[in-house]
Amino acid sequence: MIPLGQRGGSATDHDVGIDAYLSKPLRFAQLVERLGAALGGVVPAEESTARVPQSPPAAGARVLLAEDNPVNQKVALGMLKRLGCWVDIVADGREALRALESESYDLVLMDCQMPEMDGFEATTEIRRREAQGRRTPVVAMTAYTLQGDRDRCIAAGMDDYLTKPVGLDALRAVLRRWLSAPQDGPTAAAPEEARVPGEAESPTQFTRLPSLDPRVLDELRELLGAELDSVAALFLSDATARLKRLRAALETRDCKTFFEEGHTLKGSSANVGAVRLAAMCRELQRMGREEDLAGAPELVARVEWELAAVQKALRGELEHRET
Asked: Per CATH, is 203-322 categorized as 1.20.120.160?
């Protein structure tokens, strides 16, 4: 990119490996033209350069989804199918490694926090095995949003980063980025994180959040169709079981389990639009991570009440949309 008025395209440019140049300030049409020429593609006509392609960016691509949460699995599967992917699902890092031994995938979506073997360890092992061969793109999926967490993803050998709850547009962009370009280049920098509903709220601000965000349900219904009812039922069943394990972990002061259950329930709650419950579970997760359970009994009780409210609101929303 060169300043306006400066000439490019000299023999010296070609000698040092420069194939094209852009004059600043950039113009969209010029950018499209140069990229098309550099990548060997067909350059669209000027009047059509602003159109967004409507075809699935990953039609026919084989994707391995490594995710232990059954609710998150269902939602991610619906999005990936919508985008034209063939999908295999595994529940932990060891299963992911076994799947990669027997099948070739175009991309791996890797949850960072999983039992048995987490996404970081699994990706490190994938890169060790691929040292002399093809590099499979691995995209991290995590609820964490700190720069240090992003750095850890990249250090483990992950190529990109999606913040949970993963949205369809963000997933589409990642698939387009990694399934339409050569995969032997350097590791990409992680994109800016999306805000998890309720994530910036303090415990005293829980009441400012709704029990249920109907917009999320509308998006899920469009994505999943009739399967939304079964996903909602799965969420309620799974959440009830996790709440029971949270209580047991609290009684035994098992901070590790307390953290894990809070983390998982937070993610599935956000995926179905239960934003207040997700915010409460984020605080439970923090307590478990910091091994400070002061105030946890009261918050677990509030989570129990909130889950009942979510159940009522969720069933009401589903029945309302069926009539």
From this structure: yes
